[in-house]
Amino acid sequence: MAKSKLKPRKASVSASRVAEVAGVSRSAVSRTFTDGASVSPETRAKVLAAAEKLGYHVNHLARGLIHHRSGIVCLIVAEMQTPFQASFVEAATRRLQDKGKVVMVLNTAGQPANVEAALRQTLNYRAEATVVVSGAPPLSLVETCIENGQRVILINRDDAIEGPQFLMIENEAAATEACFMLRRAGCTRLAVVSSTAGTPSIVARETAFVAAAKSAGIEVAVSRAGPTGYASGAESARQLLAGSNRPDGVFCVTDLLALGFLDATRIEFRLRIPEDICVIGFDDISAASWLGYDLTTFRQPIAEIADYIAEMLDEDEGGPAKVRFPVHVVWRKTVRP
């Protein structure tokens, strides 16, 4: 294999060096790379030609710090391997990059001390804002950002803390609607498949579903077999369906739980969906639409939330302290008509 002849530069090219090669002043170089600044076409052409020849790039970080706008946005994420979190990160990073932002993703799956150190690195780079994408990262990380004067946006959290902006979805309304959907399908023995994660959004869905059923005079069986994942959903099916008084209507607080529940119900218990049991999920991950599942679920407005964040960070002043986004039912074939 032939070796590359490219060699790393020993140092970055300065604006002064560009000015020297172009035969213009240092300020002319600065104006050329500043949007809206006044510079003649002839001077601009000389500067751009010299910059191209020398491989010059504007130090946007240094320029941003002068104007207190670094263009950096930090995303704090937990459980990045789950389909919903991955979809949200993809949508948020794409929209923020469209707005000219530089996105730094901080995975909170590591040791707390390492996560804290990584977050402080983003503070050293003067990140404009931190977006906490899930309910798992500890409140101490949020407080660290606020104490350092950073703009903080929390997704699907409702912490008792002043300073951040809260972007939330209508978890309670959706869970209440799920209860109504199952009752309308003729289900009389209801259950909710939740998890041990205990995040605000999961707790809100579980609590609202139980409350809606109780107001209709129905006691709900609750299963929390483990973390929010496929295996926990399958284990919940084993717990709920092994007895004689098994449920005929189940609300799973996430789609991953629902997929595990569906597979165990069909394969291990030989029950029919939706004839024997109706199942509703939450999130509308891509697998929910697969022919093997065809899951009735609630779609989170990922694109709308990502758009809102990108637009909000483009403004000097933030929006309301709390914004709620509606979720929408996606009817498929796991609930009887």
UniProtKB/TrEMBL annotation:
Protein keywords: DNA-binding, Repressor, Transcription, Transcription regulation
CDD domains cross-referenced by the UniProt entry: HTH_LacI, PBP1_LacI-like
Any Pfam family hit: LacI
MF (Gene Ontology): DNA-binding transcription factor activity; transcription cis-regulatory region binding
SMART domains: HTH_LACI
HTH lacI-type domain span: 18-67
Stored PANTHER family: LACI-RELATED TRANSCRIPTIONAL REPRESSOR, RIBOSE OPERON REPRESSOR
Identification of the protein by name: LacI family DNA-binding transcriptional regulator
Organism: Paracoccus litorisediminis
Phylogenetic placement of the source organism: Bacteria, Pseudomonadati, Pseudomonadota, Alphaproteobacteria, Rhodobacterales
